[in-house]
Amino acid sequence: MDTTTTRLDTLVIGAGQAGLCTGYHLKRAGREFLIVDGHDRLGDNWRNQWDTLRLFTPARMDGLPGLRFPGDPTHYPSKDEVGDYLETFARHHQLPVRLGTRVLSLEKRGDVFVATTDTGTFVADSIVVCTGSFGRTPLVPDAAADLAPGIVQLHSSAYRRPDQLAEGPVLVVGASHSGQEIAYELALTRSTTLCGRDTGALPFNTDSRRGRAAFPLVLFVFRHVLTRRTPMGRKEMLEVRSHGGPAMRVHTKDLLGRGIERIEERFAGVHDGRPQLANGRVLDVANVVWCTGFRQVFDWIQLPVIGEDGWPREYRGVVEDCPGLFFCGLSFQYAMSSMVLPGVSRDAAHVVHRIVERRPAPAAVPA
What we know:
This protein has helices at 17-28, 44-47, 79-92, 177-186, 209-224, 231-243, 252-257, 341-358; strands spanning 5-13, 33-36, 97-98, 103-109, 112-117, 120-129, 137-138, 152-155, 170-173, 192-195, 261-263, 267-271, 274-277, 287-290, 294-295, 325-327. By secondary structure, the chain is an alpha/beta fold.
């Protein structure tokens, strides 16, 4: 491992949309900073999703500061288009990004933070952690290990397309966004069952004419009503962080129309090598796709800032218990919109404002 030590004003960990937006606002504020990311190419956190994934927001709403999203403003960008756009955004704004750099530990020594990576050590006055809305560690029930060896299992993070699965019926576990969309796709080629609690739904499909007309109002609610300052927003935050958001593109009627068996009973365990639901029903399937979400894993942050629920103790990305430590891109960092491209820049701007407010002039960097 490289033993080089680099001194910075601010280190941004993660080069997704949150990290790049943070970099954009830091550059505008005249700060010295570096963005590090473990991927070998910018945008790969998006490219490494299932093939047919598309945004829920049209391109006209998806541009980040200073660069519109390319193409037809009414189309819903694919995951590869988003990855390419983020790469272009970093190049357009000449943001300093070091790829292939994974942070192994973060600690605080006196007034500075020390981030140890697999390419060297960084010492910084401020740290912004931008490692994903819900975390990147797949959350799979322990009982999954008891399924018969012949049953193909994939977590949604590893699912790309139907031909990864074996012939025969499939059970999709988890009915939030990914579960509904993946089940809807799989039903074209095999018998599909979707189980899991109902996470709610918008009253229209975002792709429909009605949805296109109404979505600006929905985004307004996501930005200004469902926030951590309102009782409704705080309640929704707990729901979304625990169970995922409401259906937006694929609704129950769409699932039923494609012949999917929709069961609200939850996965409860394994009986004789087969998945069993909470009502005792045992399903004879050849495949299980776990759309059960992710968990935040911050064990590399060696600071007492993570709550019992696994989430950082922050408000709007500011960790009051540890001056100089910030987060950006978290689910409901401030509002429902924090999780989508149209909302991330506001959160990043607030974090950078607090960085500048804390230390108006960058610390002197030794030659």
